[in-house]
Amino acid sequence: MSSKKHKKRQDTEIRSQPSSPKREVVNIQIPEAISFSFRYYQDDKDQFFIGGRDAKYLASLLRRLRDLSQLNAQEVINNQSKSLRCHSIVWKNTTEASGFGIPNEDILINVPYQFQISANEYGRVHGFFSENVFYIVWLDPEHNLYS
Known about the structure:
Shape: elongated
Number of helices: 4
Order of helices and strands: HEHHEHEEE
């Protein structure tokens, strides 16, 4: 005869245990600070390629993104600090007169922006805001967007 007949199923003990107590629902206020997305990030252009950069570059970039994520979009855009220098991009004054080259760019992007990573040492970050999300399109360590 099979010994399976007399074995107790292991999962029945779990089912017989009382369910956990009800959890208190806590309403969390979503912060208005900006977040960053790499959804439209492009690294296929030589002038915006960061492949040869050292760890200091990446560390500076991540610190800058962390620090800016404490602010909302209007605080970043309207900031007059020389340490941030966030301003709009006027395509006709750049090496990329046709813009980012993103599909439906004219509908998707109201104003393209750039901000510096640190005081001229690590270049710029180029992208655009959609509400409180800044979409990073290009990393420009050599300041190649402007000739």
